[in-house]
Design brief:
Radius of gyration of chain A: 16 Å
Number of strands of chain B: 2
Largest interface: A-B, 42 and 47 residues
Number of helices of chain A: 2
Oligomer: heterodimer
CATH superfamily of chain B: Sodium/glucose cotransporter
Distance between the termini of chain A: 10 Å
Largest sheet of chain B: 2 strands, antiparallel
Shape of chain A: elongated
CATH class of chain B: Mainly Alpha
Shape of chain B: globular
Helix content of chain A: 55-70%
Strand content of chain A: under 5%
Helix content of chain B: 55-70%
Chain lengths: 70, 532
């Protein structure tokens, strides 16, 4: 058989990778600040914008780990 | 105030529209099977789209023209709270990735074309499937109407009077979706998104350069917002509302029929998963587009259209472009926004029509209908929906559609227990899920009903203020979260209690949810569309 779902060993890593971006952007207590700002953009904005790259990386790794092979 | 009419802008926008219309008709020849006359071919493009096509299709489908004009308008009008669109479009991908892959597999295995198809097969309940179908259609129809706001905002800024451009745009749209089905928006999405990416890239570099940098933009935006007691940061009482709105919208997004259509039209399970890591590129674009709202504040943009008392704030982005860019570039941007309305409108029309044909017409009205007849019904309904949408916008107030869209997510999220739990477990009883739906939907609609808006007494907003129930707090919560939790709790409590009632027959097996690729389709001519 080919690995089609995450194996038992990989499952915790997969879930962690999927949970991380959620926690990072869904708890405003973590990022509702003006400082430190980058190029005049308050922390609130660049933190959330950079998590767009973060989520792409996390889901990309999950894809690589759980990809169906023929 | 009506801005002067520019024939250059009008000419460029019309030319772009003409190119797209031709493309829409040409799409019928793209990977053409022997016949387009079935939901499978017309409504799902033969389930053959690869990674690239899917990326453009789902991207063009979810990040609509309305988003591009409404999100900046929200930051313009409410400050930091409007930025919820960014955490929303981040959270959606990790949430959806694994369930969407399971959904793809089971639907491919059994030939399901809609969420309701799956619910019927999994829970063996025609009633539950009907509830899911109706929920999806009711949530989608105002969304189609809303796509017109993008076009309308452009028309207003270009200084054209009357609603005739809306009719022409949607009649052309209805015509080529009739002939080409899902292939039309898939092909047009390429043009639309490339144009919009260029537009945004130029805008987020050129406008801050002209205004003097992000430092000045945020400073001036803060100054402008503080006169309305708002800020570029959230107030403590806004945290719960911000987080639940982002989370709830993310949970709701892939329950919409048009999103399900995008997922099911792909060629393989891997294509679905891979796209969950590629689609965030659209979120980045959306994030920068959102900031156009602050740029508009910094540039002292005044919205046009609407009434003198309540100007149409969705016009701020077009007005900003008009004042900051040379006219020819503004015109290209306008064309891109207008085309951007057509892609999602087409997919929404197709998916709502598929749902009607598959889950209402065939099971309830004409049990013996052939695939061909089902496809034809879908085509007819899709035309009716589009023309109906223009009728609603022209006949009623635009704000009606906007208010309805706000509650669309609240409505569609009630599908979640039957659909998503169904992908993972058969524990839930079909009657418990149906009663859960009734309880959740009932509570949500009640909460929406008692929420006043700026100009209305009811259905004013999807943010529910706890002060409505007598609590001394400014805290709000997204109504849909309360509704879906109620739905889940009721379904969970009732399942053991209803154990004596007969369960429905489950026609799926555990292996169906893991299926990576189906056996090759017999009806293809040529290669599958797009690269994998």
């Amino acid at each position: 058989m080919h690995p089609r779902t995450p194996s038992r060993r990989r499952r915790p890593i997969v879930l962690l990778l999927l949970l991380l971006p959620l926690v990072a952007v869904l708890v405003p207590e973590f990022y509702n600040f003006a400082d430190p700002s980058i190029g005049g953009m308050p922390f609130f904005y660049w933190w959330q914008l950079s998590w767009i790259a973060g989520v792409a990386v996390c889901t990309g790794i999950v894809y690589a780990l759980t990809r169906s092979t023929r | 105030m009506i801005p002067p009419f520019s024939s250059l802008e009008f000419g460029i926008a019309v030319a772009m529209f003409a190119v797209v219309t031709v493309l829409g008709f040409v799409a019928a020849r793209w990977n053409r099977p022997t016949s387009l006359a079935s939901v499978e071919e017309w409504g799902l493009g033969g389930r053959r789209f690869g990674t690239v096509v899917t990326w453009f299709l789902i991207g063009g489908d979810l990040y609509t023209a309305y988003t591009f004009v409404a999100v900046p308008a929200l930051l313009f009008g409410t400050g930091a709270a409007g930025f919820f669109a960014v955490p929303y479009t981040i959270a959606v991908f990790p949430l959806v990735m694994l369930p969407a892959a399971r959904m793809w597999s089971v639907c491919h295995e059994h030939g399901y074309a809609t969420a309701a198809d799956f619910v019927r097969g999994r829970h063996g309940s025609r009633l539950l499937a009907l509830l899911v179908a109706i929920t999806g259609i009711v949530a989608t129809v105002p969304y189609i109407a809303l796509q017109l706001t993008g076009i309308k905002a452009i028309i207003e800024v270009m200084g054209i009077g009357g609603d005739w451009p809306l009719w022409i745009a949607f009649i052309a749209l209805a015509a080529y979706t009739w002939t080409s089905g899902l292939r039309a928006p898939a092909l047009i999405a390429f043009v639309k998104d490339i144009l919009i990416y260029i537009m945004v890239l130029v805008a987020v570099i050129y406008i801050p350069y002209k205004l003097g940098g992000y430092d000045i933009i945020f400073h001036r935006a803060q100054a402008a917002l503080s006169t309305k007691k708002l800020s570029t940061l959230l107030a403590g009482s806004q945290y719960l509302g911000y987080a639940t709105l982002a989370l709830g919208s993310a949970l709701a997004l892939f329950l919409y029929p048009h999103a399900v259509t995008g997922v099911l039209a792909t060629r393989s399970r891997n294509v679905v998963k891979k796209n969950m890591s590629l689609l965030p590129a659209y979120s980045l674009m959306l994030g920068f587009i959102a900031l156009l709202g602050y740029m508009a504040l910094a540039a002292h943009v005044k919205p046009v259209g609407g009434t003198a008392k309540a100007p149409d704030s969705t016009t701020i982005v077009p007005v900003l472009f008009n004042s900051e860019f040379p006219h020819w570039f503004a015109a290209i941007a306008f064309g891109a926004i207008a085309i951007g309305a057509l892609v999602p409108a087409a997919i929404m029309g197709i998916s709502a029509a598929n749902t009607f044909a598959r889950d209402i017409y065939r099971p309830y009205l004409r049990p013996g209908a052939s695939d061909r007849e089902e496809g034809l019904v879908s085509q007819i309904v899709s035309v009716i929906l589009k023309l109906g949408a223009v009728g609603v916008i022209v006949g009623l107030k635009l704000s009606f559609a906007i208010e309805f869209q706000l509650i669309g997510g609240v409505i569609v999220i009630e599908i979640l227990p039957a659909l998503v739990l169904g992908l993972y477990t058969r524990w839930y009883h079909r009657w418990a899920l149906a009663i859960g739906w009734v309880a959740g939907m009932g509570l949500s609609i009640y909460m929406l009903y008692v929420t006043p808006g700026k100009t209305t007494a009811h259905f004013g907003s999807a943010s529910f203020a706890f002060s409505t129930w007598g609590f001394h707090t400014k805290v709000t919560i997204w109504t849909g979260i309360v509704g879906v939790l109620t739905n889940l709790i009721v379904a969970t409590v009732l399942t053991p209690l209803l154990a004596r009632l007969p369960r429905g027959r489950d026609e799926t097996s555990p292996a169906d949810y893991e299926e990576a690729e189906a056996p090759p389709m017999p009806l293809t001519r040529g290669q599958a569309a797009g690269a994998d």
